[in-house]
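Researcher: Structure prediction, please.
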Amino acid sequence: PQFVERCRAAVNAGQRSKHHILPSYVRVAGDRAIGETSIVIHVRQDIGGVAVDMSSHGRFLDRLEKHDG
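Model: Predicted structure follows.
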């Protein structure tokens, strides 16, 4: 609930963001795999009266395992 309220407050304050999720890359080894997904988040907001654009780059790493076929 706190996350949703902070998002609403940010939108009401004029802050906008865009999330880009790139295609996943999956490496398979038998019944296990690792999935890697790169992301970029672009945010425009006001900091101390100055409008700024920020970009954050990250990646999701997921461990996967096949069960019961």
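Model: Residues 2-12 form the longest helix (11 residues).
Researcher: Thanks, that helps.
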